[in-house]
Amino acid sequence: MKYVVLFAQTNTGYSAHVPDLPGCVAAGATLAETSELMREAIRMHLAGMREDGEPIPEPQTIAEYIVAA
């Protein structure tokens, strides 16, 4: 499954979250570090949901960049 990950620059680096997986977040000093931490966070989040017998949500969020003139 492919989930949308939203990244935001912060005062200390970057943060990220997955809108379709509430509570699945990561933060790091660089975008690359945050992306790698987010991959692991998603794996752990889904593994925890499976262990708890929770249904795995289908990805629903769609992302698009829109240029504002």
Molecular structure report:
The protein is α+β, with helices and mostly antiparallel strands and 69 residues long. It has a single domain, classed as 2-Layer Sandwich (Double Stranded RNA Binding Domain). The protein is 30% helix and 17% strand. The protein has a three-stranded antiparallel β-sheet, covered by helices on one side. Strand 2 (14-17) and strand 3 form a beta hairpin. The longest helix is centred in the middle third of the chain and has 21 residues, at 31-51. The chain starts with 5 loop residues before the first strand and ends in an 18-residue tail after the last helix.
Radius of gyration: 13 Å
- Cα(first) to Cα(last) distance is 34 Å
Largest sheet: 3 strands, antiparallel
Mean pLDDT: 97
The helix content is 25-40%
Shape: flat
Strand order of the largest sheet: 1-2-3
Count of DSSP H/I helices = 1
Proportion of residues in β-strands: 15-25%
Under CATH at level 1, the class stands as: Alpha Beta
Pattern of helices and strands: EEEH
Q: CATH topology, anyone?
A: Double Stranded RNA Binding Domain
Count of distinct strands: 3
Task: Give me the secondary-structure topology.
Blueprint: E1 6-9, E2 14-17, E3 25-28, H1 31-51
Antiparallel strand pairs: 1-2, 2-3
List its traits.
69 residues, alpha+beta, flat, 3-stranded antiparallel beta sheet, Double Stranded RNA Binding Domain
